[in-house]
Task: inverse folding
DNA sequence: AATTAGCACTCATAAGCATCGAGTGCTAAT
DNA sequence: ATTAGCACTCGATGCTTATGAGTGCTAATT
């Protein structure tokens, strides 16, 4: 890659920042005004022209200003962006926003998504702790009525799920006992993703007892485990996207896309890096060609488990958003770890 | 209200139905084509003209077809609409859609909202059982670690909430015992809406014990009770609204509106009727002037407690949606009641 | 009195066209 | 390497005109 000289970098940075601010193609004069460069507009034009041939900028049409290309944004994010630390204001907003939820991991994730969406005016995506390292830590069966019980499941990551369960047969203390035996033998300490109806049936039969009466309980446990293992992705602030004029009518299509679960799961799958920034077509989906995705992992007790991020127009405020996402994921990871400490 | 003759009714109904189908103003010839009326277009024009002066129809401009006015929709819904029972197809779709969630009230509500949104291509709103008749039925404290416990709260309506709670002091069995004493004395059987920090403090002090160590538990219980009492309103399928062309750019504003919690709570507040249909400006909010709201209550064990409904353009398919909402709420009510039976 | 044919009229929409101006690219001078 | 100067491009804006769906009215018909 041909290296850019100082002034070209400065110009590229200014175009990106100005475009992010105004949303309008930026012209040579405007650029001089907003940077204070001590050169003439003709010089700037020459440089911009070169930046176009190098692929960092684009012109919507011959007589318009310049707009950053995908490559331009990439260069900006990788080399030109200054602020790499979150600023005071955003940090405080985040702290204040999620403090109320600090005790409970699930609420924390939800809240983190909401806060991030508000802060960035983008859509946020957040995934509760999950993955293969998530083990089942505790299962509790609480009798409610003769035929009803509630089941509570807790994982090693602090995710808590509960649901009611209706039994065909009366819930005797014997049945409870048998239930705990099975749980003890076949479920506790296992990864949530491994629990399924088939595997439990085998155990249910081996521990002798009324396996017929046990059926609804087993089914409910499986379902709880499944819903925990899948750890649904939360989409927050999606209506923020409608406010961005660059989407125009395609906002509807984008929202449609984000509301499907398969693609969004894919979108969140990060690589090895702790924070992933995908600009425009770097995303594998056509529907995201005008969007950027910034996702970061957070870890609970050393395991990488959850993800939080934003989706917004390529013309998003990277300089503010990237540090915010990074800070927020760190914070969430720390808070959850702390909540689970002995 | 001047009564309409048979033919005018027929014409009004046809305009409404045709407009609902196509979204275009309907003209006199088109109307003859789609009704098979045995009169000339001039006659239809005269009738339509009268329907305009009576306020049932509107013309966007002099040389356009007619569009139902709010009053027109109202008359249609009250007097002209034929199908008052859900049809086979929709019934099956609903049954199939929520069957998987039948055991657990909360999941049932969530699922009902999703199904309804899919079915109607509108946004759905659903509220879990709640209200003053909702009593706290059970509270469970399950120790997890030395400093952590999980709390589970069940209401008389089958709503189950759980969260983790972190304690400053170790969770001794004595503390547990004291906790249950307080719960027994001051919480069980009380309406969820009455539980608050102040009232609990009084009790915590009266029952002697380490009220300082108890604090986080009390706070968590209050928060659970509060979140249950408020029973957040679920908004589903809001992206469906973007597909309706009549909203155009104002769809963004509408979504924004729906994502605020105060107004939507107001929107759901029904009157005495089991099903409420509010068309256009019959809603108290400017943002809903082009929308209709159809909400119905469902009852659990005799008490009216929850609400499920749709929000969509005034030009929605009332004939299909109204029976669907009615059927769905009945079904949900029955299923929850059944799930809670002894 | 109700219905209908006929026709002039209205008005949103689209198409065509001149104008404007922000911003460019190029050339020649510094 | 930079800059002043200038012709050029092309979207945006605003105006005029043509089109046509659909109406409202009048006079004839049943």
Result:
């Amino acid at each position: 890659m041909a290296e850019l000289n100082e002034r070209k970098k400065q110009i590229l940075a200014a175009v990106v920042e100005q475009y992010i601010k105004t949303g309008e193609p930026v012209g040579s004069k405007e650029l001089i005004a907003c940077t204070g460069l001590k050169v003439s507009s003709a010089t700037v034009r020459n440089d911009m022209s070169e930046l176009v041939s190098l692929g960092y900028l684009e012109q919507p049409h011959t007589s318009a200003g310049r707009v950053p290309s995908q490559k331009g944004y990439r260069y900006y994010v990788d080399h030109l962006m200054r602020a790499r630390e979150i600023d005071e204001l955003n940090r405080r907003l985040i702290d204040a926003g999620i403090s109320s939820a600090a005790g409970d991991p699930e609420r924390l994730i939800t809240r983190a998504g909401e806060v991030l969406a508000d802060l960035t005016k983008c859509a946020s995506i957040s995934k509760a702790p999950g993955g293969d390292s998530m083990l089942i830590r505790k299962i509790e069966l609480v009798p409610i009525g003769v035929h009803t019980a509630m089941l509570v499941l807790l994982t090693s990551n602090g995710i808590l799920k509960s649901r009611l369960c209706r039994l065909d047969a009366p819930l005797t203390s014997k049945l409870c006992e048998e239930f705990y035996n099975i749980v003890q033998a076949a479920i506790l300490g296992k990864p949530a993703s491994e629990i399924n109806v088939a595997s439990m049936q085998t155990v249910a039969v081996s521990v002798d007892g009324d396996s017929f009466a046990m059926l609804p309980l087993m089914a409910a446990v499986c379902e709880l485990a499944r819903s925990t293992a899948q750890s649904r992705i939360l989409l927050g602030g999606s209506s923020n996207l409608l406010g961005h004029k660059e989407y125009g009518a395609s906002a509807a299509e984008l929202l449609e896309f984000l509301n499907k679960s398969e693609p969004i799961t894919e979108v969140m799958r990060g690589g090895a890096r702790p924070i992933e920034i995908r600009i425009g077509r770097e995303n594998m989906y056509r529907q995201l060609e005008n969007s950027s995705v910034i996702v970061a992992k957070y870890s609970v007790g050393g395991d990488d488990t959850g993800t939080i991020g934003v989706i917004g127009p390529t013309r998003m405020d990277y300089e503010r958003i990237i540090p915010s996402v990074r800070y927020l994921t760190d914070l969430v990871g720390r808070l959850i770890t702390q909540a689970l400490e002995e």
The interface with chain A takes residues 103-107, 137-138, 140, 142, 144-148, 150, 152, 154, 158, 160-166, 216, 220, 238-239, 242-243, 251-252, 255-256, 259, 338-342 of chain B (CB under 8 Å). The CA atoms of residues 101 and 107 of chain B lie 6 Å apart. The longest strand of chain B covers residues 303-313.
